Structures are given as structure tokens and as C-alpha cells.
Amino acid sequence: MDKQAPDALVTGYRQLVPALNLPDPNDGHVLAAAVRGGASMIVTNNIKDFPAEALVL
Predict the structure, then answer these.
(1) pLDDT, tens digit, 9 for 90 and up, residues 7-37
(2) Cα–Cα distance, 1 to 25 (Å, whole number)
(3) DSSP string covering 7-53, please?
(4) Which residues contact 8 (CB under 8 A, 6 or more apart)?
(5) Cα 2–15–1 angle (5° rounding)?
(6) Which region, left, alpha or beta, applies to residue 38 given φ > 0 means left and ψ of -120 to 50 means alpha?
(7) What is the pLDDT of residue 57?
(8) CA–CA distance, 34 with 13 (Å, rounded to integer)
(9) Cβ–Cβ under 8 Å, residues 17 and 28
């Protein structure tokens, strides 16, 4: 993936993970990378672990 889309790699997100409050703490890296990368949305079928109140900054 890095070769095909080099600008898609998000770094510097790990320090954000401890401040996040998600139902499944193992999903924190997903939200932290989205925040660090400036994402406007997260696309997932796992909506129970990404409730709207946890995603509003």
C-alpha cells in the first residue's frame, strides 16, 4: 500500500490513543489515526464501537 499510495500513511497518532474513550480500547488507533490524518469520516461496519458521542471533538 505504501508504494501505491505513499501519502496515505498516517504517523504520529499513538500519543492520542490514551485520551480517547471508545467502547473497545483496541480500536483507539483507528480513531487516533483519523484525527491525526484530518479525516472527515470513518467508514466501518463496526458502528457499535464508534458511537457518535465518542467521535465529536
Answers:
(1) 889 999 999 999 999 999 999 999 999 999 9
(2) 26
(3) GG---S-GGGGGG---SSGGGHHHHHHHHHHT-S----S-GGGS-HH
(4) 1, 2
(5) 10
(6) left
(7) 63
(8) 9
(9) yes
